[in-house]
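Task 17 of the worksheet. Students: predict the tertiary structure of the chain below and write it out as structure tokens. Keep your answer in the requested format; marks are given for formatting as well as content.
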Amino acid sequence: MGPQPAAIAHVAHPRLWLPGYRSVAVWIIDSFWTDRTPRLLRDRPHVDRLFITDPQLVSEWSGQTGLPVGVLPWGSDTTRFTSAQEGTDRPVDVLRVGRQPRAWSDDARTSRDAAAHGLHFAGRPPFSDDPARNQMLVREAMGRARVVLAFSNLVSPAPYTHPTRDYLTGRWTDALAAGCLVAGTAPASAASLLWPGATVEISPTSRDDAWPVLAQLASEWTPQAAADRQSEARRRLDWRYRLRDLCMAMDWAVPDRLTAELATL
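Model answer:
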């Protein structure tokens, strides 16, 4: 598994082309970077099958590598989130997570506007240099929120995002795993990877148009709706399903621990 295509070259090992492995699979998470494909994946016999997270890029990756290409979409560790059924209310109406379009980037302004519409807004969660603690802080923040703001990279660009392709990330999958509704601009792939009603579109540029929608979403929130959303996320989005599908596609035995964890979902 590699975070992006170029990383695969750094994990190349002699046993990829010497006897030792019956079969080899590569799974690229940020598969939208098709221009960064290492030579290791271009018409070489060392890899048997390639997996990507972006379903719309199967043909392009197949053409570049000559490999059979499967899709294992972005997921979430859904069991790490507190059950929505354990709480009856959430004090945060709207939570900001990650980068935002220019119109939504000022948390102080968004907080003032939210209050004017009778809503409680929370800015970005605290950041930690420890990745595990950082994820814990994000999970805790989402567990207190009804709606999470998340906008596609095409309307909230940054130097590290792809300039022309949008894509689903953990902001969407983790928010849904927490039982939150996601409002903003969803990537095009959300239509096939998520389910109807998982996201709601609001304007990335016109705050005046967006606030009535956010106010209605917050007012219509119920604990049962959050629990239903969380249940759907566990059924569709957990990373364990991706690992199981990888094993099955490669004709590998599904590890006993993975089978046991799947049973808990």
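Marker's comment: The radius of gyration is 20 Å. Residues 5-75+238-258 form one domain.
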